[in-house]
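To close the section, here is one more complete example, presented without commentary so you can practise reading it yourself. The ligand is D-mannonic acid.
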Amino acid sequence: MHDRLFHPPETTPAGTEPALAGIVHLGLGAFFRAHVASYISEAMQHHGGDWGVIGVSLKSPGVRDRLRPQGWAYTAVELAPDGEKPQVMTLLRDVLVAPENPQAVLDAMAAPNVSIVSLTVTEKGYCHEPATGRLDSAHPDIAHDIAHDLPKSAPGYLVRALQLRHARGLPPFTVLCCDNLPENGHVVRGVVLDLARLIDPALAAWIASDGAFPSTMVDRIVPATTPDDLDRVAALTGQRDEAPVMHEPFRQWVVEDRFCGARPQWDVAGAQMVADVTPFEHMKLRMLNGTHSSLAYLGYLAGYQTIAEVMTDPAFVRYARHLWQAEIIPTLTPPENTDLGAYAEALAARYANPAIRHRTWQIAMDGSQKLPQRILATLAENRAAGRGSAGLVLAVAAWMRYTSGRDETGTAIEVKDPLADRLAALWCDDPRDTVTGFLTLSEVFAQSLRQDTGFAAELTQALSGLVAQGARAMVADI
Ligand code: CS2
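Output:
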């Protein structure tokens, strides 16, 4: 039996009000606690300043319930191929569960000392149309948030909290999107302004003129924590932590330096504060996330549980290298001082890290929200330039096969996707009809791809091959 981990951090002695926080973070998943949190902690260590964080779970109380008895502290464990390094993180000041008390979340966001609201709510949390980046005003949570003061969606919380600040004569906070979307600051600004206009055009004008929505590129591989991990951490540290996070050694954070209020000195912690994040975002979304998703769908269908397992198969390693060299790098403008070939090799080594058990199933989640920026934008550019994209086309076909809900042995797949029911219904015996059906999805496929008969023909061929020969043989063929 191990001791229960942690006493409340010194900044929140029992029985007193939590210390002031400068940041409210929406979406308190493992990624934030292993990535942005590490930069905030290090900036405070090196530079001081009270940048404690109030975390908000938008859906369930699980994380709050596990963290509360630990005084909001948790262990972040770095998993290198040659060992594990635990670190105790004490930057959280409080955790709120939005559906339990939406007003408390709005009050926290509207507190005078808060200058940043950061978000990791996953791609679908922005309630936008992935193919266009615009607010989906027919989304049930958005329809709710237009009609009610107490919101449900992330854009709803941002708009209603900004409304409260405006009414109180406070400046807006900077909205810092840390999700894997292209030009993520631009996307979140668009959905916030679209929603604000539907609620109060004067509010929208104030947000547009005084607010700030810097874009960021975030990178660290952080698999979901498993029950086994809790035992592993207890064995490693001698203390029981109910909410640790497990991450790879690598991390990168590139932030557009355009804030409307104060911010921590993240540069001292190694964040790259730049004028334009776009080349970094394209590189990361296409080279990392694009191959991650491709390996996840094809790897899952070939029977591999994790990315590290996929990378033990030489056919898959060759496939990944082909994607980088022949299909993705030609579409990119390298960020300053970056060698894209070296970046690709570093990715191959990160994927192969056997200490990271990142499930293909986890990465396969929410494909309808991920494919446009990870794979389809690259594919469309290749087609326009007359470059081949057989590897990426195969990945799209694998996504279609995966979302049918049956793997190559006929076993059911638990498909997690906001469009899961619609996607499953599009699957039929004739690959040509399946492709025709999928290409009606305007949320996913841009018009140029929907109308591209050459693309439809290649996709049909890849899908027929997947059904006839299986994923592994098709990957080996590329
Ligand atoms: C992954 C990402 O789950 C996924 O879709 O591709 O979470 C990936 O691990 C991170 O973006 C790495 O920075």
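Once you have examined the tokens, check your reading against these statements. Residues 180, 219-221, 288-289, 292, 362-363 surround D-mannonic acid (CB under 6 Å). The chain has 21 helices and 13 strands.
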